[in-house]
Amino acid sequence: MRLPALAALLLASMAAAASAQVPEGQPSTAPEKKLCRSQEAKTGSFMRPKRECHTAAEWAEIAKANRANAPAVPPPQLQLNGPNGQP
């Protein structure tokens, strides 16, 4: 009973591995996997968070654009808490 099931499983896995191989020099015809991220809902909102789906390459481009458009963070400033502005 176990032997035929094991043989069938082995043949199925070999067939899947053979069909998954792409010859060198040819691009894969499979579409890229989409990665979905949910944006936080606004505080006090009853609506669900909005989901945004892109490929890994598209997410990398979005992150690059966000870094380029983000304002530079100023260095921390020394806080003076003592009398007459003394540290």
Automatic annotation (TrEMBL):
Domain of life per record: Bacteria
Region (Disordered): 19-50, 66-87
Keyword Signal: yes
Biased composition, class Basic and acidic residues, residue ranges: 31-40
Cleavable signal peptide: 1-20
Keyword entries, A-Z: Signal
Biased composition (Polar residues): 78-87
The name this protein goes by in its record: PsiF repeat-containing protein
Lineage of source species: Bacteria, Pseudomonadati, Pseudomonadota, Alphaproteobacteria, Sphingomonadales
